[in-house]
Structure formats: C-alpha cells, structure tokens
Write a structure and sequence with these properties.
This protein is mostly helical and 345 residues long. It contains 14 helices and no strands. It has one domain. The chain is globular.
C-alpha cells in the first residue's frame, strides 16, 4: 500500500505537474496557478501518450514495452520542464482565499468522497475497463475481446483511441488494479481537473472580482450534481462515467477549448505579450486535440469545428487576420487525423 501511495504521488501528481511548469511560462503571471499547471500537464501527458501509443500499436509492440518507454519519456520531459521553468517558479500565483472559494473546495471534496462509494456500471464501462484490464494482464493492446477476454483481430473501431490503454498505463505505474484505479483514484483526479478548468474560466469571466470565480465554481458544482436529467448530459457522464473517454472530452477537453478562446478574447495584452498568448493557443489547441483523441475517437470531430469557429470569432473581435495563424497546428492535426482514419479503416 505504501508503495502504491508513493508511486501514485509520483506519477499522478509530480510528473504531470512538472510537465505543465515550462509551458505555463507562456501565460501572464496572474493566469498561472498550481491548478492550471496540473491541468496543462495532464493534457500534455494524454496527448503525448496518444502520439507514442499509435506507432507501438501499429508495429505490434507489447504493452509493457510501451509503459517502459513512456515512463522514461514522460519522466525526462517532466524533469526538463521543471529545470527550464524553475527560475520563474516563484511567479506562479495562488488563488486568494474567500468564502466562495472555500465553499467551492468543500463541494468538490464532497463529490470526490461520494465518488468512492458509487458502484455505477454500464456497457461502455464494461468495454473501457475490459480493454484496460486486458492490456494490464496480457500485455497486448486491442487484440483481446474486452467482454470475453478471447483472442481476436485488432479492434480497428476503437484502436485509434488510447483511453483504456492510458488507464492501464496509470495502473501499471502505480501497481493497482485498473478497476480500482478508474473508480477511485483516476476518477477523483478527473473530477478535480474538471473543476480546476471551470474555476479558471470563471477567473477570465470575472477578472476584476476574483471571489466571483469561486461563486462561478459553486454554480457549476450545483449544475453538475443536479444535472442528471438524462443519461446523455455532461453532468451525468461526469458523475457516473468519470473515467471514461467521452466524459473526459465533455468535461475537460471541451471546457479547456473555451478557456483558450476566452483567453484569446481578453484585450489585456497587445504586442509581444499577445503573440506569446497566441503561441500558447496554437500549441495547446494541438495538445487538447491529441488528448481528446487519446480519450475517444469522436474527440477531434467535436473539437476541430469548435476551434475553427472560435478562431474566426477571435479574429473578428481582434480585427486581426493574423489570428488565423493559430489554426495552423489545428489544420495539421486534422490532416494527420484523416490519414489515420484511412490507415485504420
């Protein structure tokens, strides 16, 4: 148990946080916070995993070799990010304490504890966890039937997405069964990342009154808890399928795209600072697309139009045609995505 706790702190907190330190330097000081750094780090981790996973899958390399290489790669990149970003470490800002922020933290904590006692199961969960368990135990990826464990051909329908394999990777890192990792550890982390994202959206919506960001977060908590009006709402996915790929897309990736767009719409910077912000948007539009593809194959089909229309709105608002330069990584990703669909068809 002690080994699992230590490994969990290392691979679920330290490494993702380290990955987010250096990229956060592209943001102004008041935009940076430990929470946002952790969110950025997880998106990088997911997107990077998808980029490494696909060649391993197509070449038929074993899952344990993928885990070994990716642990080495992510560890080195996290360390490099810390080293190159360390000199500005003190410039990160912490949220100012206020009653709404404290209430928001309490509401999130209650949801995290409640998550431990939920025993939600469904067909998607059976496939998602079955895929993770097959990879964790057999060291193969998408060559065993998720429902029966019987040998089969490569599952082309789901192979493009690494959601279940990513869960198996986390389980391999912390030496914990995939079902326990998903329902307890990974689920709570995703819940926290979801609310971190919305809290920072609130900070952009209410730049002059930071306490309103906490109030905004509390309202999001209320809508999430009482949003189970259908099995298809994002709130229902968040609290019943937290660890599944579609839930991550709906509750983390799409909100993060709106965060990027709101960040670009802010008129508080011009000149070099705006160019740096534009670089952040370009880089992380690609990162969030890769992360969404890692979670489910439907991710890019939802995010690509959203990013394209969003860039158009920003260009009209800024009255700068050069803003469309931020869509170049998005277009490159779209081209690669179409090629992958053709190869894995």
């Amino acid at each position: 148990m002690l080994t699992t706790i230590i490994l969990g702190i290392l691979w679920l907190l330290v490494v993702p946080f380290g990955l987010g330190i250096f990229p956060s330097k592209m943001l102004k000081k008041e935009y940076r916070s430990p929470g946002l750094i952790l969110l950025i780090g997880y998106l990088i981790l997911m997107g990077l995993f998808e980029c490494v996973y696909l060649p391993f899958l197509l070449l038929g390399i074993r899952f344990d070799m993928l885990c070994l290489l990716f642990r080495l790669l992510s560890g080195i990149l996290s360390l490099a990010s810390v080293i190159f970003g360390m000199k500005d470490f003190k410039s990160f800002t912490l949220p100012k304490k206020n009653i709404w922020l404290i209430l928001f933290a309490v509401l999130v904590a209650v949801q995290c504890v409640a998550r431990w006692f939920q025993g939600v199961t469904d067909g998607d969960d059976a496939y998602f966890l079955g895929t993770a368990l097959n990879a964790y135990t057999s060291k193969t990826m998408y060559y065993l039937d998720a429902y029966t464990g019987m040998a089969t051909g490569l599952d082309m329908r789901h192979a493009l997405s690494a959601g279940g394999i990513f869960l198996a990777f986390l389980s391999n890192c912390i030496k914990l069964h995939p079902a326990i990792t998903a329902h307890i550890v990974y689920a709570d982390i995703l819940l926290i990342l979801h609310y971190i994202c919305f809290y920072h959206i609130g900070r952009l919506l209410f730049p002059d009154k930071e306490e309103n960001a906490g109030l905004f977060g509390c309202m999001v908590c209320v809508f999430d808890v009482f949003g189970y009006i259908s099995i298809f709402t994002p709130a229902a996915f968040l609290l019943t399928r937290t660890w599944q790929g579609k839930s991550v897309i709906a509750n983390i990736c799409i909100p993060f795209v709106f965060y990027l767009l709101l960040l670009m719409l802010r008129d508080d910077v011009t000149g070099k600072q705006f160019r740096t912000k534009r670089l952040f948007f370009a880089v992380f539009s690609f990162v969030v697309l890769a992360a969404s593809l890692c979670m489910a194959g439907t991710g890019p089909t939802l995010l690509l139009p959203l990013l394209g229309v969003g860039a158009l709105v920003v260009a009209l608002h800024r009255k700068k045609i050069s803003v469309f330069a931020v869509t170049i990584p998005t277009l490159l990703f779209a081209a690669v995505f179409v090629v992958l669909l053709a190869v894995l068809k």
